[in-house]
Design a protein that fits this description.
The chain is an alpha+beta fold. 46% of the residues lie in helices and 15% in strands.
Length: 93
């Protein structure tokens, strides 16, 4: 399972970073925290991803004030679905 989540993490983080986003690679979780543009609101940004790309991301502010400025994506879907999400993000970026 660890290898599977590491593969998913690497696909998502590397793909987002290639698009100019800032996504760190966590070591011990199945979520990736992604920095959003500085003047963005995490709730609005996650809402736009849902509306414009049909991608669910959790607004970081839902985890407390230090989560503002981030969104969180889960690695609970297949590698193929992660690649599909990256293609959708690329189209709206």
């Amino acid at each position: 399972m660890c290898v599977l989540y590491q593969q998913r993490r690497d696909i998502l983080a590397d793909g987002l970073n290639a698009l100019g986003w800032q996504a760190n690679k966590p070591r011990a979780t199945f979520y990736v925290w992604i920095r959003i543009p500085p003047k963005e609101n995490s709730i609005n940004f996650a809402g736009r991803l849902l509306k414009d790309a049909d991608i669910v991301a959790t607004p970081g502010v839902g985890f407390g004030k230090y989560g503002q400025g981030y969104i969180r994506m889960a690695l609970t879907v297949s590698r193929e679905r992660i690649r599909e999400a990256l293609e959708r993000i690329k189209k709206i970026s």
